[in-house]
Write a structure and sequence with these properties.
It is a single chain. The longest helix has 56 residues, at 350-405. The relative contact order is 0.08. Helices cover 77% and strands 6% of the residues. The chain has a three-stranded antiparallel β-sheet with strand order 2-1-3. α13 packs antiparallel against α14 (304-318). The protein has 406 residues and is mainly alpha-helical.
Length: 406
């Protein structure tokens, strides 16, 4: 515990100096103070000419993202495969990273390894960034003497799962962002533009068309009751996310409902199957027993419906049931997936067959997301046209009516 406390107090420095050959070198390092850093550099054959603390603003960067962790695993696997020692690999990756929070995380792990911790123990001390799956696979790699191979598998796994997440987020973010902009533009028109037309129409001395009168009434309602609507919408959104994080039943209902949606549902179902198969292939190839592997697989599906199903499958497999039969009992996996898993079990190549399933469904997710984007673009344009164009038409109807009278 004392060692961990010491590591957390280290300060990031930037430094410049000269190596044994007189060449100018520079870098970034963590140390308890400037004297400790200079001493550490001297042991490396570097004479520091300039040492400066990094500013607090620079140190307080964004937290490491899942993409950062995936890149870190890929860099570490590449360096170990090239024969670079573990501690030196951490030093190279950590000091060379542009993101301060990632740099600190990597150099903290390096310090823990230097103090005697194994790599999987060091990872386990940072559960926010290294899940049980990564820790268990690294431990298996250390025990088997094939750490670089397992790190490469982890890197591939994280790259593919993050790619799927980004695809789904992109597919959902685009229409949501466009519709949000449409609502904002509509509210601005109702609050600021429509009242100007209303004052103009008062001098006409004639009845306004029903559509125009309806839009003006809506404008008055938004002006007088808009704040209450905004507060109600904000409170509803807050309550939704609050209970979503704390209620398992609500999350299960939401995930089950999302799977039944006409366009988004099939994409989420394919993505869950792809993550299930990719995680199963990675853990089983690493030599993790199937029952233990299913624990990690359950949490990686990204959908509580599939997560609960995998946990039921784990119980059935633990009692001697075949994996293919347990999958079939859930009713959540297509027959093709069940048959490929059955072939993998019979031939002793479960990891390879699961990998092929993952490849297929990852490609299916890509194609489905592209198709959904193509479908949503004209739909969104139509919605924008109805919202904004409807308001414009409502305001010009009285002018057209006046022109016909004249």
């Amino acid at each position: 515990m004392a060692q961990a406390a010491t590591v957390s107090k280290d300060i990031p420095f930037v430094w410049e100096g000269k190596d044994k050959k007189g060449n100018r070198v520079s870098g970034k390092s963590l140390a308890a103070n400037e004297q400790a850093l200079r001493a550490d550099l001297r042991r490396q054959g570097v004479v520091a000419t300039r040492v400066k603390k990094q500013s607090a603003a620079f140190r307080s960067g964004a937290k490491p993202s899942p993409e950062d962790i995936a890149i870190f695993f890929r860099q570490l696997a590449t360096m170990l495969t090239a024969g670079i020692p573990l501690v030196q690999s951490f030093e190279i990756v950590g000091t060379g990273h542009e993101k301060p929070s990632v740099q600190k995380l990597i150099l903290d792990i390096k310090a823990q390894i230097e103090s005697g911790s194994t790599l999987h123990e060091a990872f386990a001390k940072h559960p926010l960034y290294f899940d049980d799956l990564a820790v268990n696979l690294v431990e298996a790699g250390e025990q088997a003497g094939a750490l670089e191979t397992l790190l490469d598998k982890i890197a591939t796994y994280k790259e593919k799962t993050e790619a799927i997440k980004k695809k789904i987020k992109k597919a959902l973010f685009y229409p949501a962002a466009v519709l949000a902009v449409a609502v904002i533009v509509t509210v601005i028109l109702l609050i600021f533009v429509i009242p100007q037309f209303e004052s103009l129409f008062k001098g006409f001395g004639a009845d306004l068309p029903a559509f125009t009168q309806m839009v003006i009434s809506l404008s008055k309602f938004v002006q007088t009751q808009g704040w209450w609507l905004a507060i109600l919408a904000g409170g509803g959104g807050y309550a939704f996310f609050y209970f979503k994080q704390r209620s398992k039943k609500m999350r299960e209902w939401l995930d089950r409902t999302m799977l039944k949606l006409p366009v988004v549902g099939p994409i989420l179902r394919k993505a869950a199957i792809a993550r299930y198969a990719r995680t199963l292939a990675t853990t089983f190839a690493a030599g993790v027993p199937l029952v233990e592997a299913l624990n990690s697989v359950a949490g990686a599906t990204g959908n509580i419906v599939y997560q609960n199903a995998v946990m039921r499958m784990k119980d059935e497999v633990a009692t001697g049931q075949r994996l293919q039969r347990a999958m079939d009992n859930t009713g959540l996996f297509p027959n093709m997936v069940n048959q490929m898993i059955a072939v993998g079990e019979e031939s002793g190549s479960l990891d390879q067959m699961a990998g092929k399933v993952a490849d297929f469904y990852e490609a299916e997710v890509d194609a489905a997301v592209d198709a959904m984007s193509s479908l949503l673009e004209p739909l969104i344009m139509a919605i924008l046209g109805v919202l904004v164009g409807g308001l414009v038409i409502a305001m010009y109807l009285p002018i057209f009516k006046l022109g016909s009278v004249v």
